[in-house]
Design goal:
The structure is a homodimer of 360-residue chains. The first copy, chain A, is of the alpha+beta class and 360 residues long. Chain A folds into two domains: 250 residues, Creatine Kinase, Chain A, domain 2; 96 residues, no CATH class. In chain A, helix 9 crosses helix 10. Helix content of chain A is 46%, strand content 15%. Chain A is built from 14 helices and ten strands. Chain A has an eight-stranded antiparallel sheet with strand order 2-3-4-5-1-8-10-9, with helices on one face. At the A-B interface, helix 9, helix 13 and helix 14 of A face helix 9, helix 13 and helix 14 of B.
Chain lengths: 360, 360
C-alpha cells in the first residue's frame, strides 16, 4: 500500500460512525520520548536516524500495528506529504522534516504514530463521533505494548517528559472536531470559545493551531496535561463537548423557528453555487459544504448524505486533487479543477426540489 | 384599463426588438411649457389643476394618443405610482406630486406624457434597441400635433423655455439604456464614463439621476439642450453609443478568450443562486440577472432567453411584486417573495447542463 492508495478512501477523521453529527471525530494523542536520547530538535542527523530506526523496530513488534504502512518522510514527495496532512495523519511540523522522521499508520488510518516530530513519538488514535473513552482504552493498550520494547523518558513525580513543557505529565491531548454552523449563524461561537478557554480548553480551526475555523469546524481540546489523570482530562472534555453539542442543537432549533428562510437561503445558495461555480478556493468550498451539511442534518435536503460532503471535503484539498489528476498544478488551476470535481460529484443528486420548497 | 393591467405585460423599456442586445432601449423626451402659465413649481393648487385640465384636454385631441390611459396622480395609490415608476413611465418627482399632476400613456407604453412634473409637459417616446432616428420622427409628430391645441412657451433666439435652465433650448433629452457587463468585468466602465462626460454626455444608473448602475445597466444621454439642433444631438448620441457597443462586444470577446472560466463562474453562480436562494434584495437580483443575461448572449446558456430575464427584472421590483401578491408587504417579506418568484419562473428551464460544461 502506498500513500496514493489512501486518496479515494474516506479519511479516518471524516469517516462516518452512527454517532457522527455535530461531533465529527474524536482524537487522542500521546507524546512520548526515549530515555537517554536527545529530543528530535536537539539530536544530530545521525542520532535522529538511529533513534528512528529503533522506534520503527519497536513499532513493528506491536500487534495493534500489524500490517501498518511505514513511511519515511524523506522518501515521500511533497504531494504525498500534503495528502497525509490533509488526512490529519501528520502535522505541519512533520511535513517539513527530513531523514529520520516518519509515520506508521494502520490501513484504516485509525492509529497513526509520528516518529521524530517534536517528540520522538506521537501516538494518535482517531474515530468518528464523540468516543473518547474507547479511544483512551485503545491508545493506552498500544502505549503499554510499545513500552515493552522501548524505555520512555519518565519522572515519577512529574510524568512523561516532552520537548515542549506544555505536554509534560500525561503527554496527552484529546480533541473533538465539532461542526457548529448553528452557533455560527447565531453569532454565538465567540462566547462559547471564550467560555471554554476560561475552563482550560483550547479551540482551534480545522487544520489545527493558528488556523481559522473554515467550514465552521472547530477542534476542542485540553490545554492542561500536568496534574490531572488521563481519565480526568478525558472525562472533563467529553462532558464539555456534550454541552457544546446541546448548544449547537439548540441554536439550530432557534434558527428553524425564527429564521427558517435565512437557513433555507444559506443552504440553497451553497448548493446552487457548489453545483454551478467554475472557480472555487478550498476555503470557500469548506464553507459551502458546511452549509450543505447543515441542510442535510436539518432535513432540508434529502437526496444527499453527509458521506458525500465528507468525500468532497477531503478530495478537493490541494494534495488529494493533484494526486487524482496525477499532476502538479498551480493554485489557480486547482480552483478550476476543484469546482469541476464538485459539480460532477453533485450532479448525481436530485436535491433541487427540496431546496426550492419554501419556508413554511 | 387600469395600472394593474400593465403589471404582467413587458414594460416598454424592456420590450424586445430585433436589435436589442447591449442596447436595451432608447428614449427621447421633450420638456414643454404653456405660454403665460406659471411653471408647476410656482403655480398654486388651483392654477395647477386648471393647467392640467387644459393639457389633458389637448392630449385627448392628439391622434397618436388615441385610446391612451389617462391617470391623475392623486387618484393612484402608492403601489400604482411605484409600478409606473418601475416601468419608467413616470419620474421620482411625479410620484410625489398631488392633484393637478398626471400621466397619459398609450396601451403599448411606447408614448407617455407626464403632466405638471417639473415642466407642464414631459413627452416621452421609448422603443427597444437603439432607434433614436425613428423615435425622433415619432415624438416630433406628436409634438407638432399637440402644438395645434396648445401654445408653447418659446423664445425665437433661445428655443423652448423650461423650469430648469438645463433643459432650455430643444428641451430634448435622448438616452439609450445599455447593458455593459463585459466592460464592467474588465474594469473598463470608469474610463468610458469619464470619456463620455468629457464630450458632454451623461451616464446614469438604471433608475435615473443619482442611482447606481444596478445590473450593469447604464443610461447614456445628452447633457446639452441649447445651441444644437435636435438632429445634431441625436446623431451625436447614436454615434457615441454605437462606439460603446463596439467596446462592450470587444470586452466580451477578450473575456471569452482570456478568462472564460471566470465568465462561466460568474454566470453559473448567478444561475445557481437565482435558482435556489430564499432571500433576495432587488439590487442583488438585478446583478445576478445581468450575469445570466450575459451568459445567454454569450451562448453559455441556451434554454433561456432574454425575455425571461426582462420579465424578472420588472416583476420582482417592489411595486410589481406587491400588486401581483395583492397586498402591501415589508421589504423583508419582499425579499422572500422575490426569491420565490425567481425560483419558480426559472424552474421551468433546463439550462443546468450548459452551465456545468467546462471552459474549453
Amino acid at each position: 500500500m502506498r500513500v496514493e492508495d489512501l486518496v479515494e478512501r474516506p479519511g479516518a477523521w471524516l469517516s462516518m460512525g452512527p454517532e457522527t453529527g455535530v461531533a465529527i471525530s474524536s482524537r487522542i494523542r500521546l507524546a512520548r520520548n526515549i530515555r537517554g536520547a536527545a529530543f528530535p530538535g536537539w539530536a544530530g542527523q545521525e542520532e535522529s536516524v538511529q533513534i528512528a530506526d529503533s522506534i520503527f523496530d519497536a513499532l513493528g513488534k506491536v500487534s495493534e500495528l500489524d500490517g501498518a504502512l511505514v513511511l519515511k518522510i524523506d522518501q515521500l514527495d511533497p504531494v504525498d506529504r500534503q495528502i497525509l496532512r490533509e488526512r490529519h495523519l501528520i502535522s505541519n511540523e512533520l511535513v517539513d522534516k527530513g531523514e529520520g522522521s516518519g509515520l506508521v499508520v494502520t490501513r484504516d488510518e485509525s492509529v497513526a504514530v509520528m516518529v521524530n516530530e517534536e517528540d520522538h513519538l506521537r501516538l494518535q488514535v482517531i474515530s468518528p463521533g464523540i468516543n473518547l473513552d474507547r479511544l483512551w482504552a485503545r491508545i493506552d493498550a498500544i502505549d503499554s505494548s510499545l513500552e515493552e520494547h522501548l524505555t520512555y523518558s519518565f519522572a515519577p513525580d512529574i510524568g512523561y517528559l516532552t520537548a515542549c513543557p506544555t505536554n509534560v505529565g500525561t503527554g496527552l491531548r484529546a480533541s473533538v472536531m465539532v461542526h457548529l454552523p448553528g452557533l455560527s449563524l447565531m453569532h454565538e461561537v465567540e462566547p462559547v470559545v471564550k467560555g471554554l478557554s476560561k475552563i482550560g480548553l483550547a479551540v482551534r480551526g480545522l487544520l489545527g493551531e493558528g488556523t481559522e475555523a473554515a467550514g465552521n469546524m472547530f477542534q476542542i481540546s485540553n490545554q492542561v496535561t500536568l496534574g490531572q489523570s488521563e481519565v480526568e482530562i478525558i472525562g472533563r472534555l467529553s462532558e464539555v463537548v456534550s454541552e457544546v453539542i446541546v448548544h449547537e442543537h439548540n441554536a439550530r432549533q432557534r434558527l428553524m423557528e425564527g429564521r427558517e428562510s435565512q437557513v433555507r437561503d444559506l443552504v440553497g445558495r451553497a448548493h446552487g453555487i457548489l453545483r454551478q461555480a467554475h472557480l472555487m478556493t478550498s476555503r470557500e468550498m469548506l464553507d459551502l459544504l458546511s452549509a450543505l451539511r447543515l441542510g442535510i442534518e436539518l432535513e432540508l435536503v434529502r437526496n444527499a448524505d453527509v458521506k458525500l460532503v465528507n468525500e468532497l471535503m477531503l478530495l478537493t484539498q490541494p494534495g488529494h486533487l493533484q494526486r487524482i489528476l496525477k499532476q502538479t498544478i498551480s493554485p489557480e488551476e486547482r480552483d478550476v479543477v476543484r469546482a469541476r470535481m464538485v459539480r460532477e460529484r453533485l450532479a448525481k443528486l436530485t436535491i433541487e426540489k427540496d431546496l426550492t420548497r419554501d419556508a413554511t
